[in-house]
Write the structure tokens for this entry.
Amino acid sequence: MKRKTIKDIAEAALVSPGTVDRVLHGRDGVAKRTRDRIIRLIDEMNYPVDEVLRTSSFVVNIVAMIPLVDTENTFWACHREGIEQQAQQMPKHSLKLNIVNFSIQNENDFCKQAEKVIAMNPDGVIVAPVFKKESQEFIAELDQRNIPYIFIDTMIDGTSPLCFIGEDAYQSGRVAASLIDFGIEASKDILMINLARNIGNMHHLNQRNQGFLSYFLDEGRNHGMKIALDITEADTELVRQKLNQVLTNSNIGAIWVSGSRSYIIAKCLEEMGKSDIVVVGYDVYDKNIEYLKRNSINFLIAQQPKDQGRRSLKAMIDYITQKQQPVQNEYQKVEIVNAESLCFY
């Protein structure tokens, strides 16, 4: 099939090629009704976004702000990989991409890096707003400057991103609860572990916790206690001490880890000889996989981070170059992985 050109679009829209060019490159001077008609035809005729960039005389400046990757938790490395893979599909001369990292353990560092992002004067920002309060302040600054932004991984209520790409955190908490509900006796207690320095400011973890508890309030058969344990440091010795205190002479039949460091809990349980406790957590990466294979972790809920990164950059470029409004909430499907299904993941 012959590749469509600006001239083809212009003929179909009954306008000049120059008018189509103005719409493609986001310039003013085109009536809204005409612009909408041209955008619809661009979509229907599958005019490629890379062609927009290739023929453009300006550079699209996009900044992605995501957490640093540590040596043990490679979850955020997948977001970066997806963003960079999508960037490689775009003409290098027309896309300026900066990836700015912040410490997921340090709100002050988030603020510091946010200032750097603002100073770059980007055309669009992709951000993982893991700290609720600091993210709200950052977003307020972006709104004031009319800089569009897309959320990945975490959604902050009361904000107006172009779109959110990630899991429905509340619903994923309910999924985790349902797995545990059918994996233990109804009379057993359940331990809910939050491995986070400041759980009150970690919006997505709070949403998961709410979803988890709501399942048992609504329809869960388990009637045991739901015991919350907040551990501020992902230190194995500290975790071991906390678990010892809670598990001694307890009725706990399952542990739910709200974040991505389930392997630390699994490691401590192995050392304590606790092989009869069901463990459910999040994110499929090397450390968690190691314990999943040994059934020290029973289920992991996958979030498809690479796809989040890829989709977020594409959506931002489509918006900047074509004024194409993305779907407001692009929730990704929940994937449940255990030792038996890991080979298909």
In short: Residues 176 and 257 are 9 Å apart (CA to CA). The longest strand covers residues 60-67. The two ends are 35 Å apart (CA to CA).
